[in-house]
């Protein structure tokens, strides 16, 4: 009997290739998986008439664990992001995005060990939006202008930034619990409470209340723009960073950049009833179907999944094999080579082969 039933969503673009590489690496640990393949995104729309089919959601609800490749979100076409939809439908409130230096990866910084904890359900990504010139926008603007001293331009498009006490409490608690469980020393609450007095003010106030419940973990707060500058100047002073959705999206790309880019940055979406692990990067359409995309971020997301399942030893084995293959600089994808020469590089599957061999 299989040890773990996992919902596997290959996604689109480079998703299927990096997912297949990851599946092979995870199986090489000796752990047995029962992969429940499910569709999401444009492929799902074509085959099932739904971007995010109920069967996919049901599978994650049943298995309580999923591994997902990236999914394309067409810009400004009225499509809601499947990624955002999946997180919201399944209540995956915490987006965990570690950024740890992988030796051998060319990066502007060395010895980085940061973890971004991003609120996943609300903030600027609440999905409550009104398009410019619509009757709904006009009605909302009229109401706001009757209540607010500061007026909204009648031609404006509107996105609502929603911050609630309960979701803030959950995400900040998650950050402190993560810090405690993973022997991290400090949590920084990142915000913009000086400008957005109510929404970000609430985030900071609740964050500080939660921080007081964890006297064993050091805590402080930083304004998000200043946080970005300080990460460039003295990243060693920071450890776990917790913030609302949009700030977390941006800051985690920044921290991914500090360790050498999206190709090596893993992630996980965690809720009370389940978790879905996925790389930070998108579907990179220009690399799709060419067996040239870097599978590292997806493989490391698989290792994060193993940690979540309590398989620490095997997670370390995978992470070590990835680090060894990258450090050797040979059988790696072109983006990890100093010369970036595709002719000398390994493909996606070839790099996975090297990682599997390195696991012994
Ligand atoms: P992207 O991450 O796909 O690409 C950004 C850059 O990084 C590109 O130059 C790309 O070629 C490169 N890159 C990314 N991953 C790589 C890899 N594994 N190996 C080698 N190079 C890699 O971001 P984008 O171009 O902004 O988005 C493309 C699509 O992906 C969009 O539709 C976007 O909405 C979607 N997206 C999905 C997710 C998700 O599924 N969670 C996340 C981000 C973006």
Bound molecules: nicotinamide-adenine-dinucleotide
What is the average per-residue confidence, as pLDDT, rounded to a whole number? Answer: 95
- The CATH class of the largest domain is Alpha Beta
Radius of gyration: 21 Å
User: Looking at this structure, what is the CATH superfamily of the largest domain?
Assistant: Isopropylmalate Dehydrogenase
Order of strands across the widest beta sheet?
A: 2-1-3-12-11-4-5-10-8-9
Which regions contain 5 or more consecutive residues with pLDDT less than 50?
Answer: none
| Strand segment count | 12
Structure in words:
By secondary structure, the protein is of the alpha/beta class. The protein has three domains: 1-92 and 267-360, Isopropylmalate Dehydrogenase; 108-125 and 162-258, Rossmann fold, CATH 3.40.50; 127-160, no CATH class. Helix content is 41%, strand content 15%. The protein contains twelve helices and twelve strands. Strand 11 (268-270) and strand 12 form a beta hairpin. Nicotinamide-adenine-dinucleotide is lined by residues 14, 18, 70-73, 83, 262-263, 278, 281-284, 286-287, 293-294, 297, 335.
């Amino acid at each position: 009997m299989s040890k773990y039933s996992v919902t596997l969503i290959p996604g689109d673009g480079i998703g299927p290739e990096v997912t297949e590489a990851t599946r092979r690496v995870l199986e090489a640990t000796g752990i047995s998986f029962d992969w429940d393949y499910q569709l999401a995104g444009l492929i799902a729309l074509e085959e099932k008439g739904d971007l995010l089919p109920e069967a996919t959601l049901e599978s994650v609800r049943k298995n309580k664990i999923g591994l997902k490749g990236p999914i394309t979100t067409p810009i400004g076409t009225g499509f809601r992001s499947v990624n955002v939809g999946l997180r919201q439908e399944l209540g995956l409130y915490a987006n965990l995005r570690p950024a740890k230096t992988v030796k051998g990866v060319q990066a502007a910084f060395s010895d980085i060990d940061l973890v971004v904890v991003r609120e996943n359900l609300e903030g600027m990504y609440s999905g409550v939006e009104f398009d410019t010139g619509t009757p709904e926008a006009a009605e909302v603007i009229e109401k706001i202008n009757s209540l607010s001293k500061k007026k909204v331009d009648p031609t404006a498009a509107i996105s609502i930034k929603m911050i609630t006490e309960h979701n803030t409490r959950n995400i900040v608690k998650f950050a402190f619990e993560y810090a405690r469980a993973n022997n991290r020393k400090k949590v920084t609450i990142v915000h913009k409470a000086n400008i957005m007095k109510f929404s970000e003010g609430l985030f900071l106030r609740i964050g500080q209340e939660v921080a007081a419940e964890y006297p064993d973990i050091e805590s402080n707060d930083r304004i998000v723009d200043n946080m970005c500058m300080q990460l460039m100047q003295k990243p060693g002073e920071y450890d776990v960073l917790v913030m609302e959705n949009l700030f977390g999206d941006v800051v985690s790309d920044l921290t991914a950049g500090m360790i050498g880019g999206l190709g090596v940055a893993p992630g996980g979406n965690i809720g009370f009833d389940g978790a879905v692990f996925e790389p930070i990067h998108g579907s990179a359409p220009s690399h799709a179907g060419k067996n040239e995309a870097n599978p590292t971020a997806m493989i490391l997301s698989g290792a994060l999944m193993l940690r979540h399942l309590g398989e620490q030893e095997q997670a370390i084995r995978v992470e070590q094999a990835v680090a060894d293959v990258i450090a050797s600089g040979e059988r790696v994808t072109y983006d990890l080579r100093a010369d970036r020469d595709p002719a000398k590089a390994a493909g996606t599957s070839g790099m996975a082969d090297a990682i599997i061999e390195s696991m012994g």
